[in-house]
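chain below, 151 aa
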Amino acid sequence: MTIKVRPGPVGTPLTRWRAERLQELRRTELEHIRKQGEQWRTGLAGFITVVLTAALVSGRTLIAGHRPGTQAAIGILMLTAVLATASGIFLSTRAAHGFPARPRRLTIDNLVLDDRRAARRSARDLRAAILTAGSGLLLFIAAIAVVWFGP
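prediction:
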């Protein structure tokens, strides 16, 4: 069985532009994702600051009139909200700056592959950060709802 290799279609300005654009996007992908991670980290840090400030300012007086079981539920919801948001901050920081790894032998193929892997890892961390921070927000809202409408 013989394999025949023939030239492909002639490149057009549009196909060359697409190829160049794809290479540019791949080259800047990691930088773009890490910049998004920094922005999310800043936003989440502000959010957790507001949550902690509200919890500390209101203190025990906010839950003093509730039953002990309701007080425990409020405390657990608030603590879980803070932990989820802190996890989101950690994950967004890791998305922004990466995670220390063992250095490998540097070759051109390793550099390109490492950038692609780092971009995928950063994107995965950023998605996880958004989900955990969102669940922290929902837990915080649930704690407020129990405070306002609880028995």
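Helices lie at 13-58, 68-97, 108-149. The chain has a mean pLDDT of 83.
thats it, cya
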